[in-house]
Amino acid sequence: SGKGNYDVFPVNPRHRKVFDRPCVSRVQEIEKVVDMAVIATPIQMVPELVAACGEKSIAGAVVVSSGGRESGAKGQAIEEQILAAAQKSDLRIIGPNCLGIMNTAVSLNASFAHLTPLPGNMAFLSQSGAVCTSVLDLALQENVGFSHFVSLGSMVDVDFADMIDYLGSQRSVASIVMYMEDITHIRNFMSAARAVSRIKPIIVLKSGRSRAGAKAAASHTGAMAKEDILYDTAFQRAGILRVTEFEELFDGAQFLAKQQRPKGSGLTIITNAGGPGVMAADALASYGMEPAPLSRETLDRLNALLPDNWSRGNPVDILGDTPASAYIDTVQHCAADPETDALLLICSPAGTMDTLALAELLIPHLQTVSCPVFTAWIGGDNVAKARQVFNQAGIVTYDSAERAVRAFKNLYEYGKNIERLTQIPIRTDTKLIIHRDIAGKIIQNAMAEKDTCLLENTAKALLEAYGIPVNETKIADTREAALEMAIRTGFPVVLKICSRDIPHKSDCSGVALNLNTPEDVKTAYSQIMANARQHFPGAHITGVTVQSMQDRADFELFIGAKKDPHFGPVILFGMGGVLTEVFKDISMGLPPLNRMLAAHLIGKTKIASVLKGFRNIQPIDMARLEELLIRVGRLMTDFPEIEILDINPLMVKNGVLTAVDARVFIAPASVPSPMHLIISSYPWQYESLGETVDGQPFFIRPIRPSDADLLIDHFHSLSSRSKYMRFF
């Protein structure tokens, strides 16, 4: 239905008329060209109807019928039949089990929603029909409009990736908001989202789910790579802003469309009342952020302008009886401060203050400010008109300081996501010497022996091939061999249980440290073997590893990698040692990595601040740590056979980083590199050398974002005639 001038053809074998429209018994009886079908029958009939629509050359169908995969195996089989029928004629399906679709730009309502959305420039996508109706009701209450309103349902065919790709090209769409439960084709989704989020904001509210497996629990990496965190990581690399509440969906779509992105995290809070200013600062602190430190020059100007008892800092409390002119001057002084990346203006009605008049006086000045501006006129009906004039002027406004601070935090995070979105790591830095051939042989030999879990010395050899420093590790299968290796290594030494079937050595008291004498080694060997057999009676035990005892580390870190069945390879970093899974100070990133992405991966952890130096502990060489993460990312990029990789601990002592323990699981790869990645790596395979006809060498490679400045310089170097011939 809708106000568009559409021909509607009811199809039902039992009726001659439906809603006073002539009804035919079969799709083939419709004489005119049909663009879209809406199927609302028992789901058992849908495959046949989809086939009939395909024969009629109908381009798409919305299937609202329920009873598909959500009802069990039988429903799943019917959905497969629906898809097979559609693919025979290239017909696209939305649904089944969906509410339908609405497009206000063309006055189309092909849904059974009880409400019709207001026109707008925001597109909304959802898997859940129930969420659609709730959002529609809330949007009407908040006076929020939509360009498109799409319920995707079971996504048997058309999914989020398809819709993002389509909406990205629609002029009526300024932003895309989504309620998501799952992603069907993550690689397609990332490709579409990374392309569209560069030109239109994408905001997602995703419900949390977890997926666990016995194999995943067999390592530190698998135990911590929870699926919801992987979604967070993927959204960040795709330039998508993730929110946690429906209210944020609407807020996000509006302020992202209106506001420029802040250059930094410095928020200056200006308020006419102390309480709301403190609440805003507290909200900022809850996100790990602080108010901008205003310069001495700005503070001196405010001292000369404001009453003696103003707050003399940020938040800038100008007090309730300060005239509007002083509020305006305060805004201008704070906006000019180099530490101010965004402004938050708070107004709480006090005495005879005219909140509407203040808003109207501020608007012309706020429209000339070069940084993002948020306003919070706190209250109900008394200040509603002021918020309305802010909205009409294109200035973001809220009814609480906390909501405004959350919007700033989201805008800042969105800007960082977009910044990371443009990072395309090159295949390798010329300084990063790696031996891919050696690593390939190690994996090839292990696969030939059906060795799915590399022994520690083999795992370390693999790491060493990619330039990751390891300590020397020898394997002894008898007490005498352990003693001989200990003497050769030099005391003190460490013995560790060596078994593919024991995931964590400390779980069975399988580690003996600081062994200083031959007797210590013999006793430790016997005890370790006895402990292992007691705790893991069915385990195949190779022996023990013998290593030199390391000095007490400044830090114990953890680097891991896991090939998730949906997200592909994921890199993990955080606090290491036996308490890795207890503290869970872990961040995740998607390979390939470069220095900026590796630095972000480190910076997301709590331990990052300690790594910069703490008390008598020297700061770590961050560039070296970033390089190790890049190397691990490259290893995971080059070898899709690697399922799980653990480096725990990565010991740091006097600036030296060493992988003291390592564990690697491998399995046959289902696809070759780089098809296992959800973010395409730099296409090095298209690089080539050539020669001109007169023998001059040249190098051809794909373009990179970093080439933008070179292209601009090249353009400016062209003569006027060259520019004319190129473009006109």
TrEMBL record:
GO terms for molecular function: acetate-CoA ligase (ADP-forming) activity; ATP binding; metal ion binding. The keyword Nucleotide-binding applies. Residues 460-496 form the ATP-grasp domain. Keywords: ATP-binding, Ligase, Nucleotide-binding. In the N-terminal section; belongs to the acetate CoA ligase alpha subunit family. This is Acetate--CoA ligase family protein.
